[in-house]
What does this fold into?
Amino acid sequence: MEKVERGDLGSIRIADEVVSIVAGLAATEVPGVAGMSGGIVGGIAEMLGRKNLSKGVKVEVGEKEAAVDLYIIVEYGVRIPEVALRIQEAVKRAIESMTGLTVVEANVHVQGVALHPGETKEEEPRVK
It folds into this structure.
């Protein structure tokens, strides 16, 4: 479903996909978020690129309210509860200011942890 507003000049429609993209962008701007997750593939969380942000977000949009589920991958070493709270606040603020919808839920599902580039070391061979 999409949000529809009627005014003197006609109606304004906001597609669910737009709400998903707004939520995904707001979430990925939070420090500690490595990216959005497209789900678990072979036991490992699949990280999405910026073009697929909406695939890591599930929204339910009514006429005046929205509920959001965000599937994320966090950076190694962050305090996950703090990052999740910041995501909830950022997503709520972005959706409410851009669409006029009231966010009733912003659920964060942490699906993986990403190591920083450069921290992954290849093992030295034991035998030379």
